[in-house]
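Milestone M4 deliverable, item 7.
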Amino acid sequence: MRRFIAFFVVLSVLLTTAVCFAGAPVKVHPLRGPAPARMVAEDGDWVTHFVVENVSGGPVQIQELRLLGGDEHDPLLPRGMKVAFTDGSPHGRLAAGESKEGIVRWSPPKGSEIPEIHGHLLVVMEGHADVALGFAAVLHGQTGAQNPLLWWVLVPLLGAAIAFGVRGRGNLERQLVFVVAAAQLAIGIWLAARFDPRFTRFDGASGYQWLERVLLSKQWGIEYALGVDGVSLSWLFVVPLTLLAALGLGSNGARRVPWHWLLALCASVSFGVVTLDLALWLGSWLLAVLFVVLTLMDDAALAKRVGVVLGVGIVLVAVSVVLSSGSIGSLWLLDGSHATRSFSLIDLSHAAARVGAAPILGLAPMQVLYPLLLVGCLVLMGAAPLHGWLSAVAARASAPVATVVIGALSSAAGYGLLRVAYTTLPSGVRWAAPATCAVGALVVLAGALASWVQKDRRALVADAIAAQTGFVLLAVGGLTAIGVQGAIVVLAGRALLAPLLLGALGSESRVLGVARGVGFAAVVALPGTVGFVGVGLASLGALPKQPVWAFVALAALVILGAQLHRAAKVGREGALPTSDALGSVAVAAVLSLLLGVWPHPWLFRVDAGVLDLAARVNPPGLLEVVRAPTSTERGMFAGRSSQRRRTTVPG
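Output delivered:
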């Protein structure tokens, strides 16, 4: 165990890298306070003042003050922002030692919905490199302890800390877990109710809501960043629902459940799905794998096996992330510092087009980085045939532990693949799209064949879910928004399928026969189930460019369905489970059917996020136009959004 922990400590240290700095004849800094400069309300506008100071021994000609605004397809700032010196001129000449004050001003249009602004102003000089200063405006005032997204992460973390003090106290420990899961679910519902489903990157903040960014390390390009969009919104429910289901199943067995480690695992997963910095994302996964191992320590052999396999997956992902963070050329960090490395997903998303500066092992970076990321995430997701560790957890661990690992941890790995690949390696995704779809079809086939030789009924659950993972890869390689939407439904659906199947197979009673049938129907994507929605959308997303592999995957699903039909006939009699366990299974079955029949409220909130994400790998062609909707077009859909968040215009 000590060697295992030491492995993760050493791996964490190896993730750090240095960055180079270059001197400049001028310095630019906020008039007051540290960088980034904070915009404040002033006469109905949002403004920030800055100072350009000549620190060289001679005069310097300022050619231009300008804002780094991106372009119409990838906007960095809202329209209407201006920068100039206080005399109104965007250029000037500074004598040695002279300073000059400037101002960034933005007049928000009426009804503006932009929650946060993060940008850079550039000082362009003759014969010298540009100098930048970052600036930011938080227009709705939800930062720090006021940010509800932070509390969504802190609730399971605080619960884990308290659980260490009450572990082994039976009902008290279970009551604590219920309070934690219910509180996190309540915060998630509140966030979803206030989530603006029409908010995109064209509205600002790179499309994220409840965004918060604080630079932690200039040297390594690491920042504390939280945010949620349509892609990550579903996991606000996945984590607490999985924990509640695990709590119900935990009352059905005699095995002691290490709830303190499960809460710590849920806290790590929660942080991983809302953090927007890849270094912190890797850190959350290192902790998650460690907590999984500690959770499984009552079976040392299983813990060692799972730790080694997941450790390999983490190493592959870490190598890809670290190399890609340094393959983007130069960029500006949050405060305006010049850097050649950044782990910020927001920075990398805008710089991804420049990936490919230096070959790796004689190959283009995308030909190395994307395969490493893909294979690493396949291991972490438990995709067939790399799902041996997942089957072992399902067969040998307690039902609550298996539920959290399958429903929360492995689904979060799929989210990571979507987010990281599409955001930082879009060229790699496009290059490997046919191969990714082919692998996806083979994953479905491998999982289906594995189910036919599976002797353990609980391991069969893992085989079935591992087979469904192939449709996530079909969606990734399909390069369409509808496919990405399907991948999200497939991944989030694990939070329902894991407790539904593990709980229904845990007893041979007639009462659970219907629930077992619903679970198997969802796995093989029969109409009226959540599986039908996810698999259907993922397949439709792959059909335009990869129809052959889409049909192969669907055919393999028939093979899986035949085996599950055989398994459904096994065991009709037996004792009823406890009321808590029966409740978990019943709720999972009802939600699987409800989301299969009426998925619109869910998919509507996902739409804008997946459109933004898909546009990064499949941008508009010469005959297509992507732009921000006009105010008239926005008004047409105003009635479809509940509780729209609006910027408070000062004055």
